[in-house]
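Fold it.
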Amino acid sequence: MQQNYYLCIDLKSFYASVECVERGLNPLTTNLVVADPSRGVGAICLAVSPSLKKLGVRNRCRLFEIPKNIKYITALPRMRLYMEKAAEIYRNYLKFFAPEDIHVYSIDECFIDITKYLKLYNLPPREITKMLLDMIYERMGLIATAGIGTNLFLAKLALDIIAKNAPDYIGYLNEELFKEEMWHYQPITDVWNIGRGIANRLLKYDIVDLYGITQVEEAKLYKEFGINAELLIDHAWGRESCTMEDIKKYHSKSNSFSNSQILFEDYNYDDTLLVLKEMVDLNSLRLIEDDLVTNCIGLMIGYSKDAHKATGGMMKLSGFTSSRKELMDSFISLYHKTTERGFPIRRIGISFNNVKSAEYEEFDLFTDLEARKKEKSVQKTIIDLKKKYGKNVIIKGMDLEDKATTIQRNRLIGGHNGGEDEAE
């Protein structure tokens, strides 16, 4: 039986490394953080360069947490540039592998099934991996790390734990090596898919490493974790049943999309409602653009500095719709029902759930079909104009209010500076 081999490749400190290369600097020796200082010393560093990590500066820290004695360059986030670089790297992968053998896991990380390419290139797994890492460095100036595994889980584990300490930035695990090197590894939270919550629940059974999971009765684990215990048990033995083919065939049974933002400052009840309206207005356009409808909405409100626990909830609509007016009215109603007055607000999240094709749209005897048709026509015109001239080509009166955020956020990509101004 042929042995499968997978790669998991990660671009080292991707955003920070791109900024270093753009400046003609060495990512390994340059102290650089990617952050927006205009947001104050509390701004989150999206990435820090490897040399800063060696000095103890952690990723996703805030600017004020960087020791005052460390000198560094601050680079404004340029999400459009990072997306372009990631796309270029993916195009380079396609010169060696078919798209069905590549799974993009995030902007800077991907899995590749190299099993059938070992014979094609007449190279062992480590040599194919080295060829790719060298290619990325020579063509892009970026340093990558990689994990090689006999299944997807082992490839990810080899990347996250072994490769970062390897001189060639390559780690390798099969099931036997996994038992030798990973069974007693700590902290267990370094292991893919085991966060603090799961780790704390495992502590109830005195489990602090993967080996400990193998020593507990499976019935106890299923009682504690339900169906998720199956994944924990398999991973504790170094097993992973999911293949690249399974990933490519997977389609979610339920569809939804969401949008959230962290406000630039603490907002009061009324100002937050303004921002919520802006968010609903923008996301209702997405339903129209993609010919989708929803019959369930969700809202989350997060308060400043734990002033109050998050509030919100779900609301079932009377039927499937994409009507901006119906969605707006429903979100406003949900907001008034669930949001606490008198507490400063810092986060808003909305979601459209159970999203389906527009053919599922429902009407009742009181639906004004002519008004609905006119509203949809206006929405489509707005979409066309935004595509052609930029997101800020059409704005509404509420977007000009002091506490509105749409105009500024339209210049962002993924909530961060895109690197270029949108057309006004």
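Confidence is low (pLDDT under 50) at residues 420-424.
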